[in-house]
């Protein structure tokens, strides 16, 4: 007897590329047909060429992996995701189409509208329904509280119920070193050789922006696992102390650079944390590095995921009523004399990635001080980052980056003048601007705009106890009128691309 054709389809989205995830985990080869759709609509959103290449190349390699495991795979390009699903149904007439819960609201709405059955996702360690249940019992949704609850529940770096290893939950205070004098101690992730598949993918992509890929980003699970091995074996021990450092001499420092693979499903969060904990238990890395990294994964990443689903209106936040456009330096329409900003933007163009401190304390900080409309910054960041996704960007930009939600997520705005950048980087030593000066021709734009921000928003920030000291220092300024004049000059310069 001939083999019976599959009567059921499993739809796999481009950020669910793992056989362990949801609907595919329970589907045996021969029992289902797997559908993957390359959406021209999503590719045309103006995203970095390396982001588009990563997603499409990873989807095609995953399709080949599934075929090698015996699955029948339908990988098709379509104008939209909806069109691709419809054409598949017209061609194959499945009895049912099943998908793992998508990672965005729009994709879930599409599944609901098209009658696609959804299986609970296991791509995160805390399902958003569990997060909602946790949130209902909290007076405030502090990440640290969630992190301890999650760590206790999952058992990472624990000696028993409520007993963290080495007696502390958090070693963040140990992890604030500036970059070392010798940055040759850091190694970059290994490169992958681009092959014929990569060339085919690149030729099929719309023209967007950014430098073309050179093999930095893994496009298969095998290569992603090799990147995990490299991080644990070579950089994890240094990750903790230098996780907040910035330098023009090393783009990756000791960071794992694994977020794109976690966000696409090429790696799963438990296997990453398991490797890190094993390295600590074996005595290969200090607790400050192991705890700092695991906190980023099971704490911050899962917390952001939960907030995205808990607060559907978060994306519309703008309590500071900021209305400015993205500065032309951000979009590549002008060069900037700010060394930190220039290096960060060069990194985005070259690799579609910078680590979390340039994202927060250079890009978001400057956008907030300048007054960029939050949704504009979020959309711009979605187009820049190799690990960009709506669920990542909404809480990070609206809550953490811009304080656009008025403290719903972060208790105070994450703003600073040039002093922080000077302390945590090597940028200021070669910059045209002086981080110590708030007025004058060489005044650092961050420093000037920091005091201007406090001045403009003092009424809203006055009731925030964490802002009491900065506001008291503002009242001591003898040159506030000069600061206001200089701030107006800086804003004009950012607007027309002169700064």
> Tell me, what is the CATH class of the largest domain?
Mainly Alpha
Parts with pLDDT < 50 across at least 5 consecutive residues: none
Main beta sheet: strand number and arrangement?
5 strands, parallel
The CATH homologous superfamily name of the largest domain equals DNA Cyclobutane Dipyrimidine Photolyase, subunit A, domain 3
Radius of gyration from the alpha-carbon trace, in angstroms: 24 Å
Distance between the termini: 74 Å
Describe the structure.
With 499 residues, the chain is of the alpha/beta class. The chain folds into three domains: 8-119, Rossmann fold (3-Layer(aba) Sandwich), CATH 3.40.50; 128-195 and 218-310, Serine Threonine Protein Phosphatase 5, Tetratricopeptide repeat (Alpha Horseshoe); 315-496, Orthogonal Bundle (DNA Cyclobutane Dipyrimidine Photolyase, subunit A, domain 3), CATH 1.10.579.10. It is 50% helix and 6% strand. The protein has helices at residues 22-25, 40-43, 49-68, 81-92, 105-114, 128-136, 143-154, 196-204, 221-242, 259-264, 269-281, 287-310, 328-331, 339-351, 356-370, 374-384, 390-401, 418-424, 445-456, 458-461, 468-475, 480-496; strands at 8-11, 33-39, 72-78, 96-100, 117-119, 158-160, 163-164. The chain has a five-stranded parallel beta sheet. Strands 6-7 form a two-stranded antiparallel sheet. Helix 9 (221-242) crosses helix 12 (287-310). It is globular and about 85 Å long. The protein starts with 7 loop residues before the first strand and ends with a helix.
